[in-house]
Amino acid sequence: MTIILGIDPGSRLTGYGVIRQVGRQLDYLGSGCIRTAAEDMPTRLKRVYAGVQEIILQFQPQFFAIEQVFMARNADSALKLGQARGAAIVAAVNQDLPVFEYAARQVKQSVVGTGAADKLQVQHMVKTLLKLPGHPQADAADALAIAITHAHLSQHLIKLSTNKLAFSYKK
Questions:
Q1: d(CA 133, CA 149)
Q2: Is position 54 annotated in a ligand binding site?
Q3: What is the pTM of this model?
Q4: How does pLDDT run across 131-170, given as a tens digit for each residue?
Q5: Fewer Cβ within 10 Å of end Cβ, the chain: N or C?
Q6: Closest by Cα among 150, 116, 119, 153 to 135
Q7: Is 8 a catalytic residue?
């Protein structure tokens, strides 16, 4: 059994999603958003850090997965996103969690089947894969999708290493 925390970082709204993986089975444990008021940036970063730290203490995940920074049209927005992402990563590293990073296209490809999926498609597939009664909020759905991506890719790596071991024994 593995618990995975996914984070969709933002300076005003940071989505989080927590799932449990048992073999190929994925179970929903929780999700939501860390909201920061229209405060100065250092205070927002403090709230992101504290919020992620609280989630880690509550759910005790073994893995931390976060979306990579993408090139935004606005350099100031990209910088703020990077700072929020850094605050979340520091919260994970301070709790000795291994950090895994996934590109947005990779997450969409893993969850929806196409890297060009929109937010509604991601929400729908997260709802379907985790058997949720309703659609999670968009940022929480993105965070859950990041956690699902980590689960899928880690299963794939385990399968590859098992096949490699089986192949090496056949020599």
A1: 21
A2: no
A3: 0.89
A4: 999 999 999 999 999 999 999 998 755 554 444 444 444 4
A5: C
A6: 119
A7: yes
